[in-house]
Structure prediction request, 381 residues.
Amino acid sequence: MTRIERIVGGVLALALTVVGSMAIVAAARMQIVPQWMLWLAGGLVLLVVVIDGIIIMRKRAFPVVTRVICLMTTIITITISGVGLRYTAAFNTFLDGVTTPAVTETTGEALDVTTTPFIVYISGSDSREGIDNPDALSDVNIVVVVNPQTDKILLASIPRDTYVQLHGTTGLRDKLTHAGRYGIEMSKTTLEDFLNITIDYTVKVSFDTVVRVVDQLGGIEIYSDIAMRLNAENKAKPGGVCYYSVGTQVVDGVCALRFARERKSYGTGDLHRGANQQEILTSIIEKLTSSSEYLLRLPTILEIAADSFETSFTRDEITNFLKWQLAEGTKWQIESIALDGEGTLLPTYTMGPDDPRYVMIANEESLASIKDKIREYLFTF
Prediction:
């Protein structure tokens, strides 16, 4: 074998390694390529290993340098393939955990979430006993409008104490948080009635989700307008205390959750808590989409959080949206608004006429402003 042939053999082995590795990683990225490509990638990897093995074993035909390169590329190929397949397995585990047939069953035509504006209702459960606790209240209620054509997201926070008519009921109204006791579908349809909108998808999370996701992201940035020293709700937190200074700072999952739940330190109480919750959500979105590094961690992040996360998005909708985000690298513009109102004591549907509770009567101008803003985000192209 001539020197040129040996060089060509080495280059060919290296090229096949690169192609095979890229193919297996691409196939593993949330299954964003057809199934046949996954088999092709596996075949390429196998071919690389076989060719490299032949070159390594044929000492006389190939120089030491070529054999060493082939040995290294074989190790690299097998490693990358293993990581890619692990990635696919993690994402499938997440999808199996959060998108069940009962949840994703829909009527009508499916939306193309990469081109069509859509509305998501995020319900934050107060349960620390898992996502399926039937007695859990809906402490966080955020209506998210996503417009992939304008690269804009609207976060509309509806305070937990907002006095609403529960869907399908008459007579006494109730606190929005109580709707959670009757299931996420009751919360969803009640908000649809209240805001005169159609909600396309729901996402239900427990407090555990925030802690796990933020920790997997290595913490997030928040802005606090006051200094606070709050007892952490997680006993595993060193010192059991979360400290917040005035200004921007990075917090871990436990202190992000504590920040999102605090209301007694603020004069506006639940309204300020809603703003903090929006800030946490915005920070998570911005960090996830700041680079493909974080977005590609999403399956592992959500696999960990799968037991405290539930959604009505289908598998295809999730994978298509993430594929689109990876390809486009969209930098979202996020706007936050919140419903305002006046607090008072009134009887509620859940607690009965003889047990008045604190509720918030929505300010009509604030409510109209939110409705207009939602329409603006849905129909601006």
Q: What stands out?
A: The longest strand covers residues 352-362. Residues 27-34, 100-108 have pLDDT under 50 and may be disordered. The chain has twelve helices and 14 strands.
